[in-house]
Specification:
The protein has 354 residues and is of the alpha/beta class. It folds into two domains: 5-278, TIM Barrel; 283-352. 45% of the residues lie in helices and 11% in strands. An eight-stranded parallel β-barrel has the order 1-2-3-4-5-6-7-8, surrounded by four helices. The longest helix is centred in the first third of the chain and has 17 residues, at 91-107. The chain is globular, with a radius of gyration of 20 Å. It starts with a strand and ends with a helix.
C-alpha cells in the first residue's frame, strides 16, 4: 500500500530559486507525489519574523508556486512556525496569527501546517498551549487540511538534550487536545531515522490517537555536519508495510534540488515493489531517468566518495571530481561542483539564526 506521498520543504540552509523549486514540483508530481508543503527555515516571515509577513515580490513568487503545484496535480501547503505565540497565547498573539493565516490563505493554500519543531520545550503546559494555537488557526483558515509538528517529533533523546526534557505524556496530551482532523508530523525513532517500522508507528499512533504523517529526514543534508555529504542513495529502511500505518509520507529535501530528486524518485518505487525492492537498482533507474545513462554511471561510481567520505576527507580527490563533473552541462553536475567548491556547506551559526 502506497500512502499519499509529499515533500515538506522544512530544512535549514539556502532557499531554492524559483527555477529549482519548479523543477522539483514537476519531477515529483510526475512520480506520483501528491502534496508540497513550503516552509524553509531560512524564510524568516514564516519563522523568526512570522508576525511581519512577506514582501509583495515574495508573495507573487509564492502565488506562482501555488499555481504550479495545483497545475501539476499536487496540493500546496505552507508551514508557519509561530515562535513565541504559545507563551503567552494572548490577544496580541491571536491577532497576529489571524492576520498571518489570512495572508497565507490569500496566497492560495490547500494545507496549513503550524510547526513547533526545533523550539524550546521547557515551557509550562506545552502540549495544551500548542494544541490551542493549532486549533485556533484551524478555525480560521480556508485550507482544508491542517498539520502540526510537535516540539518532540521523535523518540530521539537528542531532542531532550537540546530543547529540554519532554513533558510527561506530551504526545498523549497533545493528541487528546488537538482537533481529531489535524495531522501530526513525526520523523520516527530518530530525528534522521535509519529505519522506520510498523511496530514503532503503531505505538506512536496509539499515543496520539491517530496515525502520523511521516516527516522523513532523508535526503535532507542541512546543518554543519550533514551538509558535508551529498545524500544520493535510494531510500532504505522504509518497508512498504509502513504504508498502512501512516496518513502520509513526506520527505525533507536536500539542499541540492536536482540531485535530491534522485532518491526522491526511489520512495514510490519502494512502496510499489514491496519485498522485491532493491535499492541499488532503484538508484540506477532513477539516476538514468533524470541524468541520462553516462552521467548516471559516473555518479554511481562516485557514490562512496560523495555520500560516505564527505567534503573534508576527500583530499586530492576533490580536484579530480571537480574536473570530472565540470565538463557535464547539467544542473545536477553543477550542484556537485558547487558543493565541491564549499558553497553549500553550513555552519552551526546559520542553523541557530534561521
Amino acid at each position: 500500500m502506497t500512502p499519499e506521498l509529499g515533500l515538506i520543504e522544512g530544512r535549514f540552509g539556502r532557499v531554492w530559486s524559483e527555477t529549482e523549486r519548479l523543477y522539483v514540483v514537476r519531477t515529483l508530481a510526475a512520480a506520483g507525489y501528491a502534496f508540497y508543503h513550503y516552509g524553509p527555515k531560512a524564510d524568516r516571515p514564516l519563522r523568526r519574523e512570522w508576525r511581519t509577513g512577506h514582501e509583495p515580490a515574495r508573495i507573487a513568487v509564492l502565488m506562482r508556486l501555488s499555481a504550479e503545484c495545483r497545475a501539476a496535480g499536487m496540493r500546496f501547503g505552507m508551514a508557519i512556525t509561530p515562535v513565541g505565540s504559545t507563551h503567552p497565547f494572548d490577544a496580541t498573539a491571536r491577532a497576529d496569527l489571524a492576520r498571518r493565516v489570512a495572508d497565507l490563505d490569500a496566497i492560495g493554500i490547500d494545507d496549513l501546517a503550524v510547526l513547533f519543531d526545533d523550539l524550546r520545550g521547557d515551557m509550562p503546559e506545552l502540549a495544551a498551549r500548542q494544541a490551542e494555537v493549532v486549533n485556533f488557526c484551524a478555525g480560521l483558515t480556508r485550507a482544508t487540511r491542517i498539520y502540526t509538528c510537535p516540539t518532540y517529533y521523535s523518540d530521539d533523546p537528542v531532542l531532550d538534550l537540546v530543547f529540554g526534557d519532554r513533558p510527561r505524556d506530551y504526545l498523549g496530551e497533545l493528541g487528546r487536545l488537538l482537533d481529531p482532523a489535524v495531522q501530526v508530523y513525526w520523523t520516527g525513532e530518530e530525528v534522521c531515522s535509519r529505519e522506520i517500522g510498523p511496530a514503532h508507528l503503531a505505538r506512536v499512533a496509539g499515543d496520539l490517537g491517530r496515525p502520523v504523517c511521516l516527516w522523513d529526514n532523508y535526503p535532507v543534508n542541512d546543518g554543519a555536519r550533514m551538509s558535508r555529504f551529498l545524500h544520493l542513495r535510494a531510500f532504505t529502511g522504509r518497508p512498504a508495510a509502513i504504508g498502512a500505518h501512516v496518513s502520509g509520507h513526506a520527505i525533507n529535501p536536500a539542499i541540492q534540488a536536482h540531485l535530491g530528486c534522485i532518491p526522491a524518485l526511489t520512495l514510490p518505487m519502494a512502496y510499489r515493489a514491496g519485498d522485491d525492492y532493491a535499492y541499488g537498482a532503484a538508484f540506477g533507474e532513477a539516476a538514468r531517468h533524470l541524468l541520462g545513462d553516462e552521467f548516471a554511471v559516473m555518479l554511481q561510481q562516485d557514490l562512496p566518495a560523495l555520500q560516505d567520505v564527505g567534503y573534508e576527507r576527500l583530499g586530492a580527490r576533490t580536484e579530480r571530481l571537480r574536473a570530472r563533473y565540470a565538463g557535464i552541462d547539467h544542473p545536477a553536475a553543477r550542484e556537485i561542483v558547487t558543493w565541491l567548491d564549499g558553497a553549500d556547506l553550513m555552519t552551526d551559526d546559520e542553523v541557530q539564526t534561521q
